[in-house]
Design a protein that fits this description.
Number of helices: 7
Number of domains: 1
CATH architecture: 3-Layer(aba) Sandwich
Oligomer: single chain
Structural class: alpha/beta
Strand content: 15-25%
Order of helices and strands: EEHEHEHEHEHEHEHE
Strand order of the largest sheet: 5-4-3-6-7-9-8
Largest sheet: 7 strands, mixed
CATH topology: Rossmann fold
Bound molecules: S-adenosylmethionine
Distance between the termini: 36 Å
């Protein structure tokens, strides 16, 4: 069980398992060459300072191989995008795609999103958080690993400015229900914009995990919350 020591000395369960190895030489090269350029250093106290210019900031948590991140940054040039992901091969692929697309409004943090939100995101500094197909951890004994937990959602509420948005998507119906309940509890912070779900917003591109879910015959659930 991958629990880590938090600054408070409490043990925290992580929402991911690090699988070492399996980096192709091209992914290794992308990390070596491009992370210094597009990566957000751990020492930055405010992720906004890593961008070349000021613009509303959207964070994508758990971007996988960066398909959505790159497509959204290309189609929404009026925004800055910070992608957070721990899976090294995915970050390598995303960095290459960012470079190939010539995007200057994307930066990447290759770390646990919980730590980035704790240490590097200032209150009210985000316009939106987008989280697509987070690991559903379907077994009951693993539910504590789900990234959508009251504590993390509180951090998101703190980070998103008034009138901002929190957008999630999943193909796992019980997780959709879980998201609705956990975020619904914070009704002084977030207002559900769906009944309880919304149609897929035009800004969400299809990703590998969405295609996989559809291939298995799963329905797709989009949840959209307004930050009061
Ligand atoms: C099921 S994948 C979905 C990837 C992508 N969003 C998609 O739709 O194809 C979930 C991703 O979240 C990442 N992840 C899980 N917990 C994370 C955390 N605490 N911080 C950063 N990334 C995390 C995993 O490494 C994994 O790549």
């Amino acid at each position: 069980m991958a629990a880590v020591e938090s600054p408070q000395g409490l043990r925290r369960v992580r929402s991911f398992v690090r699988r070492p190895g399996r980096l192709t030489p091209a992914q290794r090269r992308a990390l070596d060459e491009l992370l210094p350029r597009y990566g957000v250093e751990e020492s930055r106290a405010d992720v906004r300072a890593a961008f070349p210019g000021p613009a509303p900031l959207v964070v994508e948590v758990g971007f996988g191989n960066g398909e959505a991140l790159v497509a959204m940054a290309a189609s929404e040039p009026q925004r800055n995008f910070l992608g957070i992901e721990v899976h090294e091969p995915g970050v390598g692929r995303a960095l290459r795609a960012i470079e190939d697309a010539g995007l200057d409004n994307v930066r990447v943090a290759m770390r646990d999103a919980v730590e980035v939100f704790d240490r590097q995101v200032r209150p009210g500094s985000l316009e939106q958080v987008r989280m697509y197909f987070p690991d559903p951890w379907p077994k009951k004994r693993h539910h504590k690993r789900r990234i959508v937990q009251a504590g993390f959602v509180e951090r998101l509420g703190n980070a998103i400015g008034p009138g901002g948005l929190l957008h999630l998507a999943t193909d796992w119906a019980p997780y959709a229900e879980w998201m609705r309940e956990v975020i619904g509890e914070l009704d002084t912070v977030f207002v559900n914009q769906g009944q309880p779900y919304v149609e897929r917003p035009s800004w969400r591109p299809r990703t590998r995990f969405e295609r996989r879910g559809l291939g298995r015959g799963h329905a797709i659930f989009d949840l959209l919350f307004l930050r009061r």
